[in-house]
Amino acid sequence: MNKTIAIIGSSRRNGNTGKLIDRIALDLNIEVIDLVAMDISAFDYEHNNIDDDFLPLMEHLLKHDNIIFASPVYWFAMSAQMKVFVDRLSDFLSLNALKDKGRMLREKTGYVVSTSASKEIDASFLDSFTNTFKHLGMEYGGCIHINCEQGYSTNNSDIDLVNFIEKLNPENTKVAI
Ligand SMILES: Cc1cc2nc3c(=O)[nH]c(=O)nc-3n(C[C@H](O)[C@H](O)[C@H](O)COP(=O)(O)O)c2cc1C
Questions:
Q1: How far does residue 36's CA lie from ligand 1's centre (Å)?
Q2: Residues with Cβ within 6 A of ligand 1?
Q3: Angstrom distances, CA of residue 160 to CA of 26, 28, 106, 114
């Protein structure tokens, strides 16, 4: 099984962030899971939503070493769809039955893939991921950000993208330019 998997939370699966993560997934031959297509509800202190798609999704993600979180920047933050998923990680911290599973995250590396209408990635956006990884004991592997102010556009010669893909490439072979 591939060591890497991606989740995407965007208001449009085939929008800018979708195109970027699909480009990465094509090179790495990895699975991309659309959070919007899953039944994952907001964190519930009573855990009445324990039977939705969150736990099966986590079981699947935990079979991988590297987890890519792909989200557009919406209002200086991660998308609402991604935030619902991240909030649900609290299930692993608050339910005794899940704490051992939650500790497995300590062996994982998190990566961030983002698009926005700005040249630079918003610090508030990136910090919310890196601080989450830190809190969970995950390693932070790096991020790739593409400015889509003029629409989505990248190509094989985008050096940041090439470097990002190479970092995750199991054979560590050079990505064709
Ligand atoms: C609701 C909303 C909020 C946005 N907020 C920001 C923002 O805070 N900063 C920014 O640079 N771009 C912002 N944008 C632009 C998007 O980040 C950008 O178009 C992104 O590539 C969209 O990705 P998507 O096609 O996956 O939705 C926003 C777009 C939307 C729809």
A1: 17
A2: 10-12, 15-18, 72-76, 115-118, 148
A3: 16, 15, 27, 13
Q: How far is CA 155 from CA 20, 65, 110, 169, in A?
A: 10, 27, 24, 18
**Residue 176, class by beta-carbon neighbours within 10 Å (0-12 exposed, 13-18 middle, 19+ buried)?**
exposed
Q: Is the full-model pTM beyond 0.90?
A: yes
Q: What angle do CA 123, 138, 36 make, to 5 degrees?
A: 70
69-117 confidence digits (pLDDT tens):
999 999 999 999 999 999 999 999 999 999 999 999 999 999 999 999 9
In tens, the pLDDT along 137-174 reads: 999 999 999 999 999 997 656 899 999 999 998 775 55
80 CA distance to ligand 1 middle (Å) = 12
Distance 158 CA to ligand 1 centre (A): 21
Q: Token pair 């200086």 is at which residue? A: 76
Phi and psi angles of residue 33, each rounded to the nearest 5 degrees, phi first = -105, 125
Q: Which atom of ligand 1 is found nearest the CA of 148?
A: 21
